[in-house]
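Chapter summary example.
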Amino acid sequence: MNTENQKRPQESPRTAFAMGQQQRILAATAQMQRLQAGQPLTEYNSADGIPPVIGEQHLVFSLNDREIAVKAELIQGVERPMHVTSIPNVVSWIRGVVNLRGSIASVVDLREFLGLEPVASTPRTRLLSLQSNEMIICITVDSVSEMLQIPQTAIGGGNLRPATIPQWVAPYAEKYALFDDRVIVLLDVARLLFSDKMQRY
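The structure predicted for these 201 residues follows.
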């Protein structure tokens, strides 16, 4: 028997879990960096020693001090505010269009679209490009916080309660997640992009 193995202390389940959490945080950070660099998302690879997590990957952003999440597979990129070419004779929540890596996309101020008071851009303001089917729209949000794996067990049903989902986002909210004492609204991207209000313009 190898005496070195005998002397080596065994990992406790708590230590192993903590190490797994740390690896997942590092992996999620790498995913955020890929998005901000305009690179495609990659799946967690168990061969790299990253423990798999049951649940879908979401990008969490902030709007009006509420946490909102969208499925990572629907996000084409995360950008800092850039030059927007204005369009005449459109509603105020359409900021204009941008050249997004060779593609022209409309920019929607999500705060104004949802009926919230508009605010000036800050260093934390971000532009998210969302895609559903063949449609791509950029939305401005207050900030982007993290990539997060949300387990199915944390997701609430479709019966949205006013106390859980703010009224201003409820028409475009699919569900909500209760995650580590946080209430995260899960945005239905297709419902948002193909809503009558959005399609009218």
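To summarize the output: The chain has one domain: 54-199.
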